[in-house]
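New here. Invent one.

***
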Amino acid sequence: MAIFFTKKTKCPIFFNNKWFSLSLCVSAAIFFAFLTGCSKGSTPQFETPQKATPSADESQSAVNEQLAKEAGVLHLIYHVGPVDLPAHTTLDAVEDRPLVMKFQVDQPLWIVGFEPKVINAAGQELPSALLYQAIVSNMHEENPICSEGSVGNPFIVATSTLTKINLPDGYGYPVLPTDPLEAKVILLNPTGDNNIDVSFELNIVAKPMNEFTGMKDVKPMLVDLDPCTHKPLQVEPGQFSKRQATYTLPSSGSLIVAHSVLQNHASFVELYKKTEVMPFWRSEALLDSNHYITELTNNPFEDPAGVKFKKGDTITLGVGYDNAESSWLKDASAAAMVYFAPKEE
């Protein structure tokens, strides 16, 4: 059974010559269970008797392990919006006016996962195509692969694929109450329907940073063709475009999680270690008849052991887009969000 404590605040936000409210919900889930003894009765019959059923001790152990894993888990739910999106609102109309939310956490936390959504005022999920991109950055950290004096390091990224991320057990991204955090969200509407009161919802899964939650930290890195401004790739009509970018890593560590940052019409994203010929991770996009992404294979990449890198090693991003349209493709995000576990010296 779970008990949720919720608080809400609102603050104004100016977008498209209108003021909107920005709501923040923070839900802390406290898990507990009452274990009871076995009731008397006859032995149940199974269609497949060769499969042994778990004993009471095994079942109780499994319950205790799950409760220990979930103990103290916090769900920090943030809403950016709402805004009205008329039919066929293009990226050109909104990319220079992202919704911006500045916030801080109330206590030291380990962020262990996140889940993005697009919702209406009633909390119902809306088509994922309404989200172009959301980037959440820690403004106290420098982007390790931007050499142009960047401010802020992205640690959460979401696109219309709405990829849900959970870090491997025992790993987390540390965030302090003194860290200024910033979310930049771009919502658009490629559909033919008007959408009212649209918000981006971000559910951040975290654990309190205390003596009971010993964790190994991760270092996030947005490996992007344009690592400073995150401008999208542009592809000519009827053309297939493949681009690559290589970056030198500032420290040693193991890459344990990666996920694609792509848009519709994408073909693939891949990552290479140093000068190796074959990528250690490749995710391909499955498209529908409108060239919208319906699925991404092997996404996210997860490996608790990690792909090991040394300080000074390079990592190469490869991205492919196939523009089957008769007009320019201007919204082709081309990046991978990766998480490194630093090498313990």
Remarks:
- The longest strand covers residues 2-15.
- Residues 1-54 have pLDDT under 50 and may be disordered.
- The helical segments are 56-70, 91-94.
